[in-house]
User: What shape does this take?
Amino acid sequence: MGLSLHMSIVPVIMMVVSLQVWLPLGCVEEERTALLQLKDSLNYPNGTSLPSWRKGDARCCDWERVVCSNSTVRVTELDLYRVRNGELGDWYLNASLFLPFQELISLDLWDNQIAGWVENKGLTSISTLFLYNITSFGSSFQTLLQSLGAFPNLTKLGLGYNDLRGRILGDGFLNLKNLELCDLSYNTLNSSNIFQTIGTMTYLKNLRLQGCSFNGQLPISQGLCDLNHLRELDISSNDLSGFLPPCLANMTSLQQLDISSNYLKIPMSLSPLYNLSKLKSFDGSDNEIYAEEDDHNLSPKFQLEFLYLSSHGQVARAFPKFLYHQFNLQYLDLTNIQIKGEFPNWLMENNTYLQELSLENCSLSGSFLLPRSSHVNLSILRISMNYFQGQIPVEIGAYLPGLQVLLMSDNGFDGSIPSWLDQYTYYDNLSSSQQSFEFTTKNVPLLYRGSTI
Ligand SMILES: *[C@@H]1O[C@H](CO)[C@@H](O)[C@H](O)[C@H]1NC(C)=O
Ligand SMILES: *[C@@H]1O[C@H](CO)[C@@H](O)[C@H](O)[C@H]1NC(C)=O
Ligand SMILES: *[C@@H]1O[C@H](CO)[C@@H](O)[C@H](O)[C@H]1NC(C)=O
Ligand SMILES: *[C@@H]1O[C@H](CO)[C@@H](O)[C@H](O)[C@H]1NC(C)=O
Ligand SMILES: *[C@@H]1O[C@H](CO)[C@@H](O)[C@H](O)[C@H]1NC(C)=O
Ligand SMILES: *[C@@H]1O[C@H](CO)[C@@H](O)[C@H](O)[C@H]1NC(C)=O
Ligand SMILES: *[C@@H]1O[C@H](CO)[C@@H](O)[C@H](O)[C@H]1NC(C)=O
Ligand SMILES: *[C@@H]1O[C@H](CO)[C@@H](O)[C@H](O)[C@H]1NC(C)=O
Ligand SMILES: *[C@@H]1O[C@H](CO)[C@@H](O)[C@H](O)[C@H]1NC(C)=O
Ligand SMILES: *[C@@H]1O[C@H](CO)[C@@H](O)[C@H](O)[C@H]1NC(C)=O
Ligand SMILES: *[C@@H]1O[C@H](CO)[C@@H](O)[C@H](O)[C@H]1NC(C)=O
Ligand SMILES: *[C@@H]1O[C@H](CO)[C@@H](O)[C@H](O)[C@H]1NC(C)=O
Assistant: This one.
């Protein structure tokens, strides 16, 4: 009995397996035709884009930039980033060409010189819409934005690099209550208007407002801090000034915060961020970093992996206390902050994942100390322009075996270069004033003060 049951199941299993193997990865004919129409429309008159989209080929799910659902074999994603040859001039996209794609959820049209929409139907089921750098849009683009509310399922919207100049985002934008990702970078926006609108998008997880010409204080009264689902906030490269608002402490879901390249006053202690227990990455570089008495009773709830605070000439007096409590750092950059301490070999000892440590021009002195045990993950170490003295330790190769770039010019090192560094290309032409030591493993371009030689 048990045996016969067993026997009858085996062929069924084999059939299922063979079906999976032999079913052609074809695609829906209606969608294949539409893809070819789309190709014609963006190649018109003489383009050469999308060579794998061929008339004789039935397997359109295998075509480049096309993703299909495994179960329904319908197109779910189209990545048309830069597919159109710029020499062909403006593209008036016929949005009705997308009507056959009933399960299309992601469409990227970045950088195709779309100048307008001939018809504006066909994208209602879409949940991801990337319309970056549609530089020469006409009134029909305005119409598209007005009708954004007609995309009820939109969760990811990218409208960066469009020179929108604040005229965007009519009532349609207000209806996008389900938005999780919103990228409006590199448009000139009015911060009070935009945060009023965005403050109502309670599901927002990623907000990118880089280079939007915001100025003045961080617009907290308009609801920025109410976005407590936000995981990523990028407001870098604006003209914001003033102190970090205390209400930042309420944005407890934040994992990545980028406020670099503004005129903000950021305490070296990072105390306004201590309650952000999920914060992994903070970029505060190119702002006004200032020294602040560390409050001994407070310690951060975060463990950072990426920390960038490089600046132009601020005085911090000492390494901030919170740094002693970090053990997950991978990248740390404190370039140009006057710290006036010794070489922080404890940073390497505490942070075994540390890959890149930049302490150029930090007024550090004393000897160059190696970690007490070998640190395999450190690959880039920049300590130029300090007051280090003494010998370069001969054991450097044994203790930092993964080192690829070592910048240590403009210090007071004396003695000879350890023979271990013979395996490196050695540059001594970078400074005329002082002796100079710049090393990089052969075949690795030397990263020197932010530029590649
Ligand atoms: C397209 O190709 C045709 C025939 O090869 C040619 O006559 C025409 O000038 C080309 N047009 C452009 C815009 O290159
Ligand atoms: C669909 O199948 C491919 C290839 O087998 C696989 O890589 C992909 O993860 C699958 N996608 C989904 C959504 O299951
Ligand atoms: C847009 O495409 C649809 C579907 O292919 C077609 O019926 C319609 O005529 C096109 N509209 C224009 C203005 O080309
Ligand atoms: C929006 O998504 C829901 C759930 O996935 C789906 O049932 C509905 O048909 C979609 N709406 C449109 C207009 O595609
Ligand atoms: C935007 O498009 C123009 C040409 O259409 C191109 O030159 C420029 O590099 C693009 N900018 C970005 C940021 O993609
Ligand atoms: C921004 O919008 C607010 C409120 O609508 C308005 O008072 C202010 O003048 C605008 N600012 C600029 C620079 O347009
Ligand atoms: C954090 O949010 C709560 C509730 O919305 C509010 O009462 C409190 O004042 C906020 N904290 C700060 C520092 O703004
Ligand atoms: C940080 O959280 C603690 C307890 O979770 C709370 O007592 C404190 O007020 C918070 N700090 C700020 C600035 O919100
Ligand atoms: C080094 O830092 C000082 C102050 O911290 C600053 O004034 C100076 O411009 C920096 N030097 C370089 C080469 O950036
Ligand atoms: C980091 O190093 C300092 C100095 O050795 C030590 O006091 C501190 O406890 C260490 N922190 C961690 C998290 O290991
Ligand atoms: C070095 O980094 C890799 C990944 O980047 C990680 O898998 C490995 O554990 C790290 N090694 C140490 C000693 O931390
Ligand atoms: C320094 O020397 C290297 C190797 O000879 C050379 O490639 C590089 O261009 C030089 N850099 C400068 C700034 O002269």
Notes: The mean pLDDT is 81. The pocket of 2-acetamido-2-deoxy-beta-D-glucopyranose (ligand 12) is lined by residues 427, 429, 453 (CB under 6 Å). Helices lie at 2-22, 29-43, 139-146, 171-174, 191-198, 345-350, 396-399.
